[in-house]
Design goal:
By secondary structure, the chain is an alpha/beta fold. It has a single domain, classed as Cytidine Deaminase, domain 2, CATH 3.40.140.10. It is built from three helices and eight strands. It has an eight-stranded mixed β-sheet with strand order 7-6-5-4-2-3-1-8. The longest helix has 14 residues.
């Protein structure tokens, strides 16, 4: 990864919560938001907000429920955080973005994709498809 590549710092506790969410709703795709702060060329995640997937074909796509999204935005504002990432799972892999993931991308933050089968996480700026360095662990 080049020194100028965008990055996302994901603390161990948040990574654990993300995987718990993905496994709990399997075989559907999970979806959620990460709150945090922008820092230099990347983002530091500090809070995870699981959302309800209301997509008609939730095993193949995601659509976050509006009420949950509003609650997450409100919580971020109250906690002094901003949107740091969007996450969702691919129940049967891979940890790579799909064409529909690119088409749905609406925010200039990393999109984290969890491959439930392999246990891999991928992070990308979408719709461009730029790979983000995923810094796991820490506090």
């Amino acid at each position: 990864m080049s020194p100028s590549a965008p990055w996302l710092d994901l603390p161990e506790a948040l990574e654990r919560q993300l995987w718990q969410h993905a496994r709990r709703v399997w075989p559907q795709e999970c979806v959620g938001m990460l709150g945090g702060r922008r820092a230099g060329g990347g983002w530091q995640a500090r809070a995870l907000y699981p959302l309800l997937n209301v997509a008609a074909s939730s095993e193949r796509e995601y659509l976050a429920g509006a009420a949950g999204v509003l609650r997450a935005w409100k919580a971020m504002r109250e906690e002094g955080l901003e949107l740091a990432a969007i996450y969702h799972s691919h129940p049967r892999g891979p940890a790579q973005f799909s064409r529909s993931d690119q088409q749905q991308a609406a925010y200039d933050v990393p999109y984290l994709i969890a491959d439930v089968v392999s246990g891999q996480l991928g992070a990308f700026l979408l719709p461009q498809g730029v790979v983000c360095e995923l810094r796991l662990g820490g506090d």
